[in-house]
C-alpha cells in the first residue's frame, strides 16, 4: 500500500522519437532546397563560388590551421558535382533518420555535411536558422544519453 503520488523519473522516449523525426524533416527540406540552388549560389559559375572562397582561405591560412578554421568536406573537392552529391546524401541521410535506421550515424553525418555547406555557403548560409539547425543537429547526436541534453533544448 502506497500513500501519496508515485514519483518516477521523467521519460522522454516518445518526445525523443518525435523530435528526431521532425529534425529529419527539417534536414531533408534544407538539403533539398539547397540542392536545387547550390549551382547558382556557390557552384563554379555561381554568385559566390565556393572554390574561389576556399582558395582565398587557403592562401591566408597555412597548413592544418585552415582545416580547423573552416571545417568542410569540400577541402577535398569543391566541384559542382560534389555540392550536388552532398545535397543528395543529406536528403538520403535525413530519410534514414526519419525511418529510424542508424540514427546516431545519420545525425553525425547530417551535422558534418550541413556544417560543410554552411562554412562554404558564405552569405547564403549565415542566417540564424542555419545556425539553429546546426545547434539542434549537434545536440540531437547526444539525445537519449543524458538529461542535460533535454535541458539544453529547453534553454
Verbal overview:
The chain has 155 residues and is mainly alpha-helical. It has one domain. Helix content is 68%, strand content 0%. α1 packs antiparallel against α4 and α5 runs antiparallel to α6. The longest helix has 30 residues. The protein is elongated, with a radius of gyration of 19 Å. The relative contact order is 0.15.
Mind telling me the C-alpha Rg?
19 Å
What is the total domain count? Answer: 1
Question: Assembly type of the shown chains?
Answer: single chain
> What ranges have pLDDT less than 50 throughout 5 or more consecutive residues?
none
Annotation field: number of helices: 7
Report, as a whole number of angstroms, the end-to-end distance. Answer: 39 Å
Beta fraction of the residues?
Answer: under 5%
Largest sheet geometry: none
From N to C, what is the helix and strand string? Answer: HHHHHHH
Compute the average pLDDT.
89
What coarse outline follows from CA principal-axis ratios? elongated
Quantity of strands, as a count: 0
Describe the secondary structure blueprint for this structure.
Blueprint: H1 13-42, H2 50-60, H3 65-69, H4 80-99, H5 103-120, H6 128-141, H7 147-154
Helix pairs in contact: 1-4, 1-5, 1-6, 4-5, 5-6
Amino acid at each position: 500500500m502506497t500513500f501519496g503520488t508515485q514519483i518516477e523519473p521523467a521519460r522522454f522516449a516518445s518526445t525523443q522519437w518525435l523530435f528526431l523525426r521532425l529534425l529529419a524533416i527539417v534536414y531533408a527540406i534544407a538539403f533539398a532546397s539547397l540542392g536545387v540552388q547550390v549551382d547558382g549560389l556557390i557552384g563554379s559559375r555561381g554568385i559566390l563560388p565556393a572554390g574561389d572562397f576556399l582558395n582565398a582561405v587557403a592562401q591566408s591560412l597555412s597548413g592544418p590551421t585552415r582545416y580547423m578554421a573552416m571545417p568542410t568536406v569540400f577541402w577535398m573537392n569543391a566541384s559542382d558535382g560534389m555540392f550536388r552529391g552532398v545535397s543528395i546524401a543529406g536528403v538520403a541521410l535525413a530519410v534514414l533518420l526519419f525511418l529510424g535506421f542508424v540514427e546516431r550515424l545519420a545525425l553525425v553525418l547530417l551535422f558534418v555535411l550541413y556544417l560543410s555547406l554552411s562554412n562554404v555557403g558564405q552569405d547564403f548560409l549565415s542566417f540564424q536558422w542555419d545556425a539553429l539547425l546546426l545547434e539542434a543537429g549537434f545536440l540531437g547526436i547526444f539525445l537519449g544519453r543524458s538529461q542535460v541534453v533535454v535541458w539544453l533544448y529547453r534553454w
